[in-house]
Amino acid sequence: MTFDCREYMKTRAQLVEQALERYLPASGQYPDILFESMRYSVFAGGKRLRPILTLAVIETLGGDIHDGLPVACATELIHTYSLIHDDLPAMDNDDFRRGKPTNHKIYGDAIAILAGDGLLTLAFQVLAETKMPAGGETRLLQIIRELAYGAGVYGMVGGQVADLLHEGKKADENMLAFIHKHKTGALIHAAVRMGGLFAGATEETLSALSRYAWRMGLAFQIRDDILDIVGDTEKLGKKVGSDLAHDKSTYVSLFGLSESQQKVNQLTDEAHEALKTLPYDTTILHSIADYLMGRES
Amino acid sequence: MTFDCREYMKTRAQLVEQALERYLPASGQYPDILFESMRYSVFAGGKRLRPILTLAVIETLGGDIHDGLPVACATELIHTYSLIHDDLPAMDNDDFRRGKPTNHKIYGDAIAILAGDGLLTLAFQVLAETKMPAGGETRLLQIIRELAYGAGVYGMVGGQVADLLHEGKKADENMLAFIHKHKTGALIHAAVRMGGLFAGATEETLSALSRYAWRMGLAFQIRDDILDIVGDTEKLGKKVGSDLAHDKSTYVSLFGLSESQQKVNQLTDEAHEALKTLPYDTTILHSIADYLMGRES
């Protein structure tokens, strides 16, 4: 029987959903609008790709995915805050995200900024509260550092800035790779390694997971560039052509559709290759890479 | 010889300054504007009260203040990010802070938002990289949780939201206490307890430090309300009367100047009282409380 990746991702996303429900402060406490606003964006129908990747790595390495849920969800909280801030009028000024009005369109810019700040801080709180097995404290501290690097100025935040600086300017391939690697790649990379660290991976395993994550993260983002041109507005939940509207350089604008998809395929091959050295059954990780290569939303 | 608190704070602030210099990413890397923007606000001449409090507690409990510098500086990075976001047009829309143009007036709103996000993330990175003595990992994780609670939606961010919701509205004493306790008190409380946790404080010592910190934090904030009316623009580095301009309820608007200063005095007495149970020489902590009660900037 072949592995059903779509089904796997669906069941894991449900686990993540339930965990996020527990980690997000309940509505009905003061100041309610803050908690509502955070919940609005966290439960706006994301794919939960980053937590699923963390769980997939934990599972592959024989760890307990239920115990690993806080580690998995931390990157989703970071991802969500980054979308809220990115959509602000001062940044990309987007009115819709996943088919729903963006956070600031509902709650106003000030609450949106603070909801983002709250989610970013909550990510570290949830992470620092993870129950680790005896002796696991050192690993949990490594996990926290991994998230801080992936999400911070050397990772996602740095990528956001580079992206902003190139709005309306032509970026060359190196710059585009820098932007993608930092803006989306770094957090995906962190999610994968955090799963490895949680499950007690060796340095060699972590290196192989890093190679897998970087390749897959870049493939994911180039696929995103492609979907922005050929995608289906309904499946994507946002207008296609939004990169064009923001005058952003993309792989498609630099290389065209066909060469861009070739790059996706090549990176996916390299992601598969990276897994070969691992002494585990890596079916799930292979399947996710293939799934992302062909995804339509 | 009496203890010279002003001199103590000056020398400790210098240590903090040098440490922040090491923790902040150097300029001259891409994207430079991000690192410049972060450095601009971090080195805009803050009093470094929160790190000094952390160091004072570590010193009082016999810990090594040099080893504790990352723990001390983390709250300053949080404090700085909160000022950058708070000054944004979408929030308080302030053009000046400590006598200098605010971050977004120099770098624009988008970079200011991202510099804030970067500093918030850096706080947890610096903290998670603290070198602890053997067996100190559990304590470092407690320190990280302490910061996340103090800075997040149950602390500072929640207070910011409450403050926003009451702009132009009259807040009663309970609400004003909620705002102050969360907006500024929670981070001061975290700074004090983080020092205690770093130095291996017992539960009893932590409780006493908590009482001290809450009283002192509220006294500090009421003194701030007073200075907004009677302060000297030059010493404060911001216009006096800015609370009035933002139509904010303050202790002074609710109780008048004289009763507000009485509250400062009473809270300071209670802060002193809280220290009495501690089996340490608490001269430094007493002096800081007295210093803050009478401060003019």
UniProtKB/TrEMBL annotation, chains A, B:
Cited CDD domains: Trans_IPPS_HT (cd00685)
Protein's name in the database: Farnesyl diphosphate synthase
Cofactor: Mg(2+)
GO BP annotation list: terpenoid biosynthetic process
Source species of the chain: Collibacillus ludicampi
InterPro entries with a match to the protein in the record: Isoprenoid_synthase_dom_sf, Polyprenyl_synt, Polyprenyl_synt_CS, Prenyl_diphosphate_synthase
Alphabetical list of PROSITE patterns matching this protein: POLYPRENYL_SYNTHASE_1, POLYPRENYL_SYNTHASE_2
Gene Ontology MF terms in the entry: (2E,6E)-farnesyl diphosphate synthase activity; metal ion binding
Record keywords, A-Z: Isoprene biosynthesis, Magnesium, Metal-binding, Transferase
Pfam families: polyprenyl_synt
